[in-house]
Amino acid sequence: HDPYAYLKDVLTRLPTQPASRIGELLPHGWGAPTKG
Asked: Are 3 and 27 in contact (CB under 8 A)?
């Protein structure tokens, strides 16, 4: 994965991410955002 893309995506999503779904933002659970 691209570290820059990961950090940009995580920092964008973090304020609205529910605590119960925080695992989706961890590196092993993160998937690159799909375009569309």
From this structure: no
Report yes or no on whether pTM surpasses 0.90. no
Higher pLDDT, 24 or 36: 24
CA–CA separation, 2 vs 7, rounded Å? 9
Q: Are 5 and 31 in contact (CB under 8 A)?
A: no
Q: Which two tokens stand for residue 5?
A: 């893309």
Q: How many CB atoms lie within 10 A of CB 27?
A: 9
- Work out whether the CA dihedral 14, 20, 24, 28 comes out positive or negative: positive
